[in-house]
């Protein structure tokens, strides 16, 4: 029985119990077009290396990142093809006709340790091959992430 000023208790709703169905299906990231004339670019710290990506530990101490850094001003809608062409301007190995570039985001995990996660690859002169048309935003880039580029 409900006391004075209290609401009477209602019985639970009949029917099957709620079941956990997991997270909603992933939809492809919808990227809004960026007006590069009106939008300020971001600073992208790019670390290149011939033969493979840098190791997680090489980013562990702030200020002591690998020395082969290139700083690029770009936008989140920049494609891997655009970044490939920029890397070719500063890395001789990337200019070879058969060069393949592998891109990885470098970011801190929930424990503060840096993670190197591969996100795509391109070929130096293979327009339309690989992940050329994918943009940083589509791949999940967050402002503040670094970009590791392995040149094979």
From TrEMBL:
Keywords: Repressor, Transcription, Transcription regulation. Pfam families: SAP18 (PF06487). Belongs to the SAP18 family. Residues 11-26 have a biased composition (Pro residues). GO terms for molecular function: transcription corepressor activity. The gene is LOC102712776. Coiled coil: none annotated. Residues 1-27 are annotated as: Disordered. It comes from the Eukaryota. InterPro entries: SAP18 (IPR010516), SAP18_sf (IPR042534). This is 18 kDa Sin3-associated polypeptide. GO terms for cellular component: nucleus. The keyword Oxidoreductase does not apply. PANTHER family: HISTONE DEACETYLASE COMPLEX SUBUNIT SAP18 (PTHR13082:SF0), SAP18 (PTHR13082). Residues 1-10 have a biased composition (Low complexity). Gene3D superfamilies: ASAP complex, SAP18 subunit.
């Amino acid at each position: 029985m409900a006391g004075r000023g209290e609401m009477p208790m209602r019985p639970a709703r009949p029917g099957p119990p709620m079941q956990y169905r997991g997270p909603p299906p992933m939809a492809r990231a919808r990227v809004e077009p960026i007006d590069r004339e009106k939008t300020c670019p971001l600073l992208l710290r790019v670390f290149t290396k011939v033969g493979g990506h840098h190791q997680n530990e090489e980013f562990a101490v702030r200020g002591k990142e690998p020395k082969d850094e290139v700083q690029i001003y770009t936008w989140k809608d920049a494609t891997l093809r655009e970044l490939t062409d920029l890397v070719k301007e500063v890395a001789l190995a990337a200019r070879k006709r058969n060069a393949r570039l592998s891109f990885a985001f470098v970011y801190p995990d929930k424990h503060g340790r840096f993670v190197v996660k591969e996100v795509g690859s391109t070929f130096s002169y293979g327009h339309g091959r690989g992940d050329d048309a994918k943009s940083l935003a589509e791949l999940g880039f967050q402002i503040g992430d670094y970009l590791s580029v392995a040149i094979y």
